[in-house]
């Protein structure tokens, strides 16, 4: 037991925890996008899906608590590792070198992470912690996406999610040790395709709903 504690209090252990929770969020995003695509089929289909999901009762609550714990772990260790990195290099380089292989995703990880966090808090207040007995969840989403400001905010947030995932995807595999030079280009390719699918898949929903 002591070695588990020692491992997770080391920076490599914390990176592994970030990678594992990040991979779980990738699974969650895939399932969430699949469910949200039902919004294209109209209120009846989407509400029926939401009702089926809520009929899982305590199972859904366990799942939600799991998501919350993972989010806390991911955000807290992400912030801590960022701070440790910053502290290890307090003097900024006079000339900022773009270290080989740096991408938009890797260079902006803490900032896109912060944006995604702000989005998730706003998103939960808007769509999750609402009274769904007065109006249906489809009506709540549809009403929100009649507002051009809200649609714009959602699209910006989805760009942040896509950029964050574009780096997080392959970086997570690398951290857990799947970093063979033979497989890495494939993993990076899948990560890039996945982030584009997530960005366009989620991002197009508000645009479609304000349109029709
Ligand atoms: C256009 C994009 C999106 C739409 C329309 C959407 C829609 C929804 C709706 C309607 C709910 C409430 C479900 C319910 O309580 O019945 C929900 C929950 C949630 N969404 Fe989204 N979502 C979108 C994107 C995202 C993204 C990108 C993330 C994560 C980065 C996310 C994270 C969550 C989480 C964590 C929950 C709570 C899940 C639960 O408690 O079971 N959503 N979303």
Secondary structure: helix percent = over 70%
Largest sheet: none
Run of helices and strands: HHHHHHHHH
Residue stretches low in confidence (pLDDT < 50, at least 5 long) are: none
Structural class: mainly alpha
Number of helices: 9
The shape is globular
Report the radius of gyration as a whole number of Å.
19 Å
Structure report:
- It is a single chain.
- The protein is an all-alpha fold and 212 residues long.
- It has one domain (12-88, 105-211).
- It has helices at 2-9, 11-36, 43-54, 58-88, 104-107, 109-128, 137-144, 148-175, 184-211.
- The termini are far apart.
- The mean pLDDT is 93.
- Residues 32, 36, 50, 64, 67, 116, 120, 123-124, 127-128, 137, 141, 154, 161, 202, 205-206 line the site of protoporphyrin IX containing FE.
Supply the key terms.
mainly alpha, 9 helices, binds protoporphyrin IX containing FE, 212 residues
Sequence-ordered SSE layout with sheet pairings:
Layout: H1 2-9, H2 11-36, H3 43-54, H4 58-88, H5 104-107, H6 109-128, H7 137-144, H8 148-175, H9 184-211
This protein binds protoporphyrin IX containing FE.
Describe what is shown at a glance.
By secondary structure, the chain is mainly α. The chain has helices spanning 2-9, 11-36, 43-54, 58-88, 104-107, 109-128, 137-144, 148-175, 184-211. Helix content is 78%, strand content 0%.
């Amino acid at each position: 037991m002591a070695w588990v504690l020692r491992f997770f209090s080391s920076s490599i252990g914390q990176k592994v925890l970030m990678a594992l929770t990040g991979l779980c969020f990738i699974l969650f995003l895939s399932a969430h996008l699949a469910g949200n695509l039902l919004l294209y089929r109209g209120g009846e289909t989407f509400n029926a899906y939401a009702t089926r999901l809520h009929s899982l009762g305590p199972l859904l609550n366990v799942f939600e608590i799991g998501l919350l714990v993972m989010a806390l772990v991911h955000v807290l260790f992400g912030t801590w590792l960022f701070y440790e990195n910053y502290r290890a290099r307090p003097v900024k380089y006079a000339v900022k070198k773009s270290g080989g292989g740096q991408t938009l995703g890797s260079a902006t990880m803490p900032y896109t992470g912060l944006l995604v966090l702000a989005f998730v808090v706003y998103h939960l207040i808007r769509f999750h912690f609402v009274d769904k007995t007065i109006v249906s969840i489809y009506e709540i989403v549809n009403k929100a996406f009649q507002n051009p400001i809200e649609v714009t905010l959602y699209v910006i947030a989805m760009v942040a999610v896509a950029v964050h995932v574009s780096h997080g995807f392959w970086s997570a595999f690398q951290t857990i040790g799947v970093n063979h030079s033979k497989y890495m280009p494939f993993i990076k390719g899948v990560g890039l395709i996945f982030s584009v699918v997530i960005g366009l898949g989620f991002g197009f929903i508000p645009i479609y709903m304000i349109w029709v």
